[in-house]
Every structure is written in structure tokens, then in C-alpha cells.
Amino acid sequence: MDQRPRRRLALHAGVVLAAFAVAYWTAVGQGFISDDFRWILESRLRQAADIKRLFVDTTGFYRPVVALVFGATDYFAGPDPRAFGRVTFTFALLCACAVAVLARSLRLPAGAALLAGSLWLLNPHGINMSILWMSGLTALCLVLFGTLSAIAVAHGRWLMATPLFFAALLSKEEAILLPLPLVLIAVLRARGQAWRIWPLAAGLVAAEIVYFALRSRSDAMTPGSAPSFYRFTFAIGDVAANALQYADRSLTLAAAVVLIVAMLVRVRPRLDPAERQAVAIGATWLVTGFGITLFLPVRSSLYALFPSVGGAIAASALVAAFWRQASVRQRKVLQVMAIVLPICLTPVLRARTARWTELARVSRITVEAVTPSIGRGTTAVLFVDDRSRRDNLENAFGSLLPDALELFSSTRPQVWMVPAPSDAAPEQLEPVPPVSDAWRYQDGRIERIDPAGLIGAPALRLR
Fold it and tell me: Which distant-in-sequence residues (6+ apart) come within 8 Å of 304 by Cβ?
């Protein structure tokens, strides 16, 4: 048996993994950012009852699976950003493997399956955010469990698919429309006997009912109680702008690869039945994946991670069709491209980590400097921020500086910030009271200062 195809696939997989590791490994776990602090605080597991609590008390979002992962990580490693970074890094790799296995389960060739996983993993949009910002684990959990449920459906294991789909629901809200591509996979596998999929449909409906029942008993936000930026908008301009932005973030890399292959092979692709089905499933996954976030005013690259699974599947099916029609010489060129492209993407991916590592550094040095004084009994702290730089206290912590200090010191001090965050209303400001500890972040450094000259200045007290 010729081992050369397997060796080539192993080489290509190794190049992709190396590119991913070079881009992200040294950047992960440098510090927590913004929402991370509250997530981890409220997810801590100290007794068995805490597990039940995670299904009732929330941070506003109903994502108990993510809270369980945070809680387990904190239980075994403590609030160590490096441990949490290794978790997000590993989850991203598991997601890429799941995407590749799903493509293979849809009867695409092994090379196309590897391409699908690679396109998802090396996407410049969203992956960096999900790995370097610990709160991005929500999107990774959704992708992992949603893709695993699709794999189970493709293999006819419906009893396994339902709890995996339920785990996806408990990871992030975008899973609500996942039953549509799952049912499509089952219908295409049924070969004209679609009525046979009723047990799967019933299981998916039951999972949705249980999810909404559990959610209704929690304090999670609803479309009516959510902040304005999380409430649906149907304004044509806003929806159109979202559609363009998300098309870019989820499809640009995949579309570029398909276009390059088409320009090289120069034939009209003739898709076989498996490839046509994969394109249909991928397109359905892509559209339904944006079925909620497309109508939100707030925009995030994290929202592209789940739908981009469909884009990667559809693109790999198209490339598989081109490959079958390519000449021997063209195939050799494509094999070289499969090695060159990840290498060329590496510096781009690495450069895009700077935004997150800068904020993680601000968070880390601030917590390391201030926490010892909290441990010695300091109960009130004033922070003076430098808004002339993008890497500042407001961007690193938001309003969660008290949570950050509590996470690392087990004590929650009173915290004031000068100047007040840009979105603070005038009536929220209050004069700085006498404090024993004050810190200034400036020129990339955090240093203790004398608070005397700032007593009485208007500041925002962070709750």
C-alpha cells in the first residue's frame, strides 16, 4: 500500500499545527481581560452545590457549560492566566479536529477534511480573540459541541447527538438554530426516507424545551431585559452592515483559497453527490449560525467562529471537486501551496495578537502591583488612568477592577477611577474620599502615587 498520501497529509497537518503554535502559544495566558474576572469569580467551585448554582446564577448570559469549564480550571489551577490560556488553546485545537472529522463524516476526502479544519483554525478573525480573551471560550465550547453533535448525526448516532446539541445550547445562544443543519444532514443520509429521522427531531425539540425551561428559572437576560446593544434590531442598514462584516470575518480566507485553486486549475468544478451535499450543509450552517447575531447592534468577531464551520466545510468540498479534475502538475502545485499558505499566514496571525496581549499585560502588572496591599488590609483604592494610550486600565478591566482584585486577594475593596470611563453619566460621578492607596497607570507602567492632591476630584466608583 502506498504510504505517500498519508505522509503528505501528515506533513501538511504538521505545518498547520506549527503555524498555529508559533502564532499563539507564546501569547496565551498573559493575563485576564475585562469580563474574565467576573466569569471566573462567579464560576468558582468550592462545594457540590456550586455546580447547581451555575445553572441558576449567571453573569447575564446563560452558559453553564462554559462556567463549569472555568470553575474546573480554577479549582485545579487557581486564578492562573497561563492555565486558562492553555485551556482555550487546547479547545481551539479540538474544535479544528472536530471540523475536520465532520468533513470526513460528510464523505469528503481526507485531504479536503484537513483543509476544512485548517481553514477554520487559521482564520485571522475570531480565533485570536477566542484564545487570548478567556471569555472567548464561550464560542469555542459552542463550536466543539455543535460540531460533535453534527458528527454524531452524520453517523446515525442520534442518542449521542441530542446531549451534545444540548451542551452546545448550554454554551452559547447561537446554537438555537443548529437543529436546521443537523436535520438536513439526517435527511440527506436518510436517502428518500426522511420520516425515519423523527427520533432525532423529537430529541432536538426536547433539548430546546429543556434549555428554555432551565433558562427561564435563571437570572439570565432576555431580549426584553438585555442592554440596548444586545436587543434585536431589524433596521435594514444595520443588518446589511452586519452581513457584510460577518461575510468578511467568516468567509474571506475560505473564499480566497477557493479562488486561488480555481485560477490554478482553470476548469468548472463538477461536484459529486457527497460534495454537493457538503456545500448545502455548509451553506445552511453558515446562514443559521448568524441567525441571531446578524440582528444585534453589537458586532464581534467571536460571532463568526461558529458559522465559519459551515464556510470551511463548503469551501473544502469545492476544492475537492477542483482537485479531482486537476492534472498531476497542478496537484503538485496545490500541495506546495498547502505548505506555503500556513507559513505565510503565521506572521499575520501573530501580529493580530498584539491587541490582546497588550491589554493582558496591563491587567497582569496592575494586579501584581496592587494585590499585596489589599492583602495587608487596604480597603479603598484610587486608580488614575492614562487615556492617551489604547492599552489602559479602562480597556483592560472595564468596570471590573474590584472583581479583579477580589479574584486574586479574596477581598473586595472600594475602587475609584480618575478620569471616569467615557460612558459614565455625570450623575454617576462622586468626589474621591480619603484613601490610603492610589495608583497611576502611565507610559505602560503602574506606580503608587500620593492621593492627597486627588481627594475630592470627580471620579467613578466601580461597584
Answer: 123, 125, 126, 246, 249, 250
Q: Report the 10 Å Cβ neighbour count for 125.
A: 21
Comparing C-alpha atoms, which of 290, 363, 322, 266 is closest to residue 111? 322
Listed in sequence order, the residues at least 6 apart from 379 whose beta carbon sits closer than 8 Å to its beta carbon are: 411, 413, 414
Q: How far apart are CA 355 and CA 34, in angstroms?
A: 13
Over the stretch 315-327, which tens digit does the pLDDT of each residue have? Answer: 999 999 999 999 9
Mean pLDDT of 295-311: 95
Q: b/e map of 362-389 (b: 16 or more CB within 10 Å)?
A: bbbbbbeebbebbeeebebbbbbbbeee
Please give the distance of CA 401 from its chain centroid, rounded to a whole number. Answer: 23
- pLDDT band for position 228 (cuts 50, 70, 90): confident
Per-residue pLDDT tens for 146-174? 999 999 999 999 999 999 999 999 999 99
- The DSSP line for 271-312 is --HHHHHHHHHHHHHHHHHTTTGGG-SS--GGGGTTHHHHHH
Amino acid type, 102: L
Cell numbers at 54, concatenated:
451555575
Q: Can you read off the three cell numbers belonging to residue 294?
A: 446578524
What is the total residue count of the chain?
463
Q: Which three cell numbers stand for residue 136?
A: 472567548
Residue of 183 and 190 predicted with greater confidence: 183
What's the pLDDT tens digit per position in 382-432? Answer: 999 998 888 999 999 988 999 999 999 988 989 999 887 776 777 778 888
